[in-house]
Design brief:
9 helices; mainly alpha; globular
Length: 202
Amino acid sequence: MRKKWSTFLAVLAWVAVLTQYFLMLENRVASVGETTIRFFSFFTILTNSLVAIYFTMIVLRHKKPSSLSKPGTLTAVTVYITMVGLVYQIVLRPVWEPTGVQLVVDELLHSLIPIVVIVCWYLFEDKSQLAYRQIPKWLIYPLVYLVYILIRGNSAGFYPYPFVDVESLGLSAVLMNAVGLIILFVGMSALYIKVGRVITKK
């Protein structure tokens, strides 16, 4: 059953990410190279790409033991994609009104895929092996991402999200937003671990 769920999710994520890339190219305001860099500057794109790669590897190596199957790996991926969905629903949806194909792709990237990943986490993660000491390692990805977009934004003048736009908000406000996001990441990670333990006990 895990292979079927993984195949479905991998295909869904690849279709959503690639379609979003073509849409961005069609509506680009910069060169193809710059547009591609900007495309991969979105946490949504990076995380959905991570989902696509992770579940593709699960399908390809479903009969072979690998680090992908270690307890905590799926939880980390789930935390990341949950944050994608959560931030979009709370912060970005009120200020963004896509239509047509863009609307469909947005719902895939920010709503459907996060939900399906959470289902896979519930079904397949070894929750008994989750531990709070794993959280610092899970934070490496979002921390590196935040540093990257701030450095790149300073040099290129492009910030993928309004809450990290230093030019509009100022560095102090953006750093406060970044701290808030990291706290949210830690809280979300702890919540999954706690829920996992409750499920295991039941």
